[in-house]
Specification:
mainly alpha, 8 helices, single chain, 176 residues
């Protein structure tokens, strides 16, 4: 799916069902995000007996995903700076190149798939690295620039996260 379609579908969904935001950033950010994703993944299901699996350590998976991505970003920035300052923006692409390997990790964890890290990586490659990058990078910029809206800084963040959920539901979930 194209990033424009994902963002527009996400905006429509969030207008109908706005997120319940308590606005507090905490160490539970990955757990709270996963619960929200669980609700979004299952909001159209008739079976309301589905339960969120609280035994999954979403914090550890989030640290792994973003720890690796930021390490790769910082290391590439260091290397690019040694060559030329103007190469530094390429570190953003390198960040996303690492991050897309874990793009579907949280929805896969929510669906209780076996080998979630490996499954996420496989699904990224089945989708195509270039396709994934050209979809995720604009969504990522949309999310980050939304933080500059001081009246509602997390709106674009929710739109972007839901975009990935919609993508997962439409193209990935039935492959697992």
């Amino acid at each position: 799916m194209k990033y424009q379609n994902l963002i527009s579908q996400s905006k429509i969904n969030l207008e109908i069902n706005p997120p319940n935001i308590n606005g507090i950033l905490s160490m539970n950010i990955f757990d709270e995000g996963a619960k929200w994703m669980f609700d979004k993944l299952n909001e159209s299901k008739i079976d309301k007996e589905l339960q969120f699996n609280q035994s999954v350590n979403f914090f550890a998976y989030g640290l792994l995903k973003y720890g690796i991505s930021f390490f790769v970003f910082l290391f590439s920035a260091y290397l690019f700076l040694k060559v030329n300052l103007f190469l530094l923006p390429l570190s953003i692409i390198i960040f996303y190149l690492a991050e897309v390997h874990f793009l579907f990790l949280f929805p896969i964890l929510i669906d209780n798939a076996e080998n979630p890290i490996w499954t996420s990586i496989k699904q990224t490659y089945k989708t195509g690295i270039l396709t994934t990058l050209t979809t995720v990078i604009p969504i990522g910029f949309f999310m980050v620039f939304g933080l500059l809206n001081f009246k509602d800084p997390f709106r674009n963040w929710y739109v972007g996260c839901l975009s990935i959920i919609i993508w997962y539901q439409n193209e990935i979930r039935n492959r697992i």
